[in-house]
Amino acid sequence: MARRKHSSVEEEAEIDMTPMLDIVFIMLIFFIVTTSFVKPSGLDYNKPEASQATKKPSANIFIGVSKTGIIMMENRQVDIERVTANVERMLAEAPEAAVLIQADQEARHGLVVKVLDNVKAAGIDKISVSAGNE
């Protein structure tokens, strides 16, 4: 009959950290991917002052209008005729997108209204115009 030999040294309990680290890295990747990043319009502009301006949640689509009539989207210059197509493309990527128009104080009013019309034509109802009250 075989005799069992009992070890006099008891094994120490160890905690395996690998599953916890895997979960932490997966959560980190999830938060990085789901964070919406701020895309600056690429223009230097002076915001008009507004005493009744309110803070809005961050928009996903930024359109900049300079005082010289340059329209910027995604850090590139866009013609007024191409605003609708660009907004539709961005809307396909993010269906719940909102638009923030950042126009210079000295930008032509007619151009800003054309940009607003083109955004509306693309199918977006959530449009904000940036005003400075800081």
From TrEMBL:
Q: Which UniProt keywords apply?
A: Cell membrane, Membrane, Protein transport, Transmembrane, Transmembrane helix, Transport
Q: Where are the transmembrane segments?
A: 20-38
Which locations, inside or outside the cell, does it occupy?
Cell membrane
Main location group? membrane
What Pfam families does the database record attribute to this sequence? ExbD (PF02472)
Q: Does the keyword Glycosyltransferase apply?
A: no
Q: Does the keyword Transport apply?
A: yes
Q: Which family does it belong to?
A: Belongs to the ExbD/TolR family.
Q: What is this protein called?
A: Biopolymer transporter ExbD
Source organism per entry reads Shewanella schlegeliana
